[in-house]
Amino acid sequence: MRYGALLAIVQLAVGCSPSAPDNGAARQDNASAPAPAKAAPQGEERLVVAFGDSLYAGYGLEGGEGFAPALERALAAQGIRAKVVNAGVSGDTSAAGLARFDFTMDGLASKPDLVIVGLGGNDMLRGLPPEETRANLDAILKRLKERGVPAMLTGMLASPNLGADYGATFNGLYADLARQYDAPLYPFFLDGVLGRRDMMLPDGIHPNAQGVESITAKVAPLVAARLKELK
User: Fold this and answer.
1) What band does 30 get if pLDDT is binned at 50, 70 and 90?
2) 53, 113, 206, 214: which one is catalytic?
3) How many other C-beta atoms are found inside a 10 Å radius of the C-beta of residue 39?
4) Is residue 206 annotated as a catalytic residue, yes or no?
5) 141, 151 contact by CB (below 8 A)
6) What is the pLDDT of residue 34?
7) Residue 79 to residue 41: CA distance in whole angstroms
8) CA distance 22 to 25
9) Beta-carbon-side half-sphere exposure of residue 86 (alpha carbons within 13 Å)
10) Contact, 46 vs 227, CB < 8 A?
11) 203 is catalytic
12) Which of 53, 54, 113, 123 is catalytic?
């Protein structure tokens, strides 16, 4: 209940977007229009790892509806042949992610082309010191650098009821680490989705399948651009 209350406050902070109006005529027009041509995936398959918590794991969703499979489809639509590994674990704090990092990386079939790190939300919900979150994420990014694996970050926002000082420290750590490790950053993973009933599960914390697709549509171009840079 406490977690739900915290997220409810975050929802108010970021604003509740109204659901799109039901426009039957628009749907009919779209249905009759030819679908845009999609580029066929080409080249050597790239290995992308989505390393995070329940937001990555696909909590409450059916197989194929989570962030990793949605991202794989989105990359394919942009002509990028990629395998996206779901390395999300529900309930993980940044410390738990750090504890399983080496085991996860060592268990992969090959060296990843990119690892997307999305941790810290559970730290915030538990009111853990932002300094600890920063240290754990710093350690994860450092280990990726030591392994020669490029990284990308997706961030979170602190609940306002944790205080202005906490919020400033927590919210700023993602941008600081992204600059330090030259990693692309998507600042708020739930941007445009949190607070929308049509895009969230009943718990108000996790995105539903529609929400995941909306998030992925914004994240995928950053991932695609990074993979193209790394060729």
Assistant:
1) very low
2) 206
3) 10
4) yes
5) yes
6) 44
7) 4
8) 9
9) 18
10) yes
11) yes
12) 54
List Cβ neighbours of 177 (8 Å cut-off, separation of 6 or more). 134, 137, 138, 141, 153, 183
> Does the pLDDT at position 24 exceed 80?
no
Structure tokens at 195: 């607070």
Predicted TM-score (pTM) of this structure: 0.83
Cβ 85 vs Cβ 105: under 8 Å: no
Tell me the chain's radius of gyration from C-alpha atoms.
18
Helix (H) or strand (E) holding 9: helix 2-14
Please state the φ and ψ torsions of residue 119, each to the nearest 5 degrees: -130, 160
Residue 152 token pair: 């990308």
Residues 6 or more apart in contact with residue 67 via CB below 8 angstroms: 50, 55, 56, 58, 86, 88, 212, 215, 216
Model pLDDT for residues 165-217, shown as the tens digit of each residue: 999 999 999 999 999 999 999 999 999 999 999 999 999 999 999 999 999 99
- Put the strands of the sheet holding 114-118 in their side by side order: 78-88, 39-52, 114-118, 151-154, 185-186
Report the first-to-last Cα separation within the chain, whole angstroms.
Answer: 46
Which of 29, 102, 198, 203 does the annotation list as catalytic? 203
- For the domain made up of 2-12+45-229, the CATH class stated in words is alpha beta
Q: Record the tokens describing residue 47, joined without a space.
A: 């290995």
Tens digit of each residue's pLDDT (9 = 90 or more) over 86-108: 999 999 999 999 999 999 999 99
Average pLDDT, the chain: 87
- Where is pLDDT greater, at 39 or 70? 70
Q: Alpha carbon of 46 to those of 50, 75, 80, 199: distances in Å?
A: 13, 10, 8, 29
